[in-house]
Amino acid sequence: MSVPEVATELFGDRLSLTVGYRDWLADTAVTRGLIGPREADRLWDRHILNCAVVAALFQPDERVVDIGSGAGLPGIPIAIARPDLDVVLVEPLLRRTTFLDEVVEDLGLTNVTVVRGRAEEKAIIAEHGEADAVTSRAVAPLDRLVRWSAPLIRAEGRLVAMKGSSAGTEIEEHRSACGSHGITDLRVETVGGDRLAEATTLVVGRKTAESSARARRRKRRTESERSV
Question: What's the whole-model pTM score?
Answer without folding.
Answer: 0.89
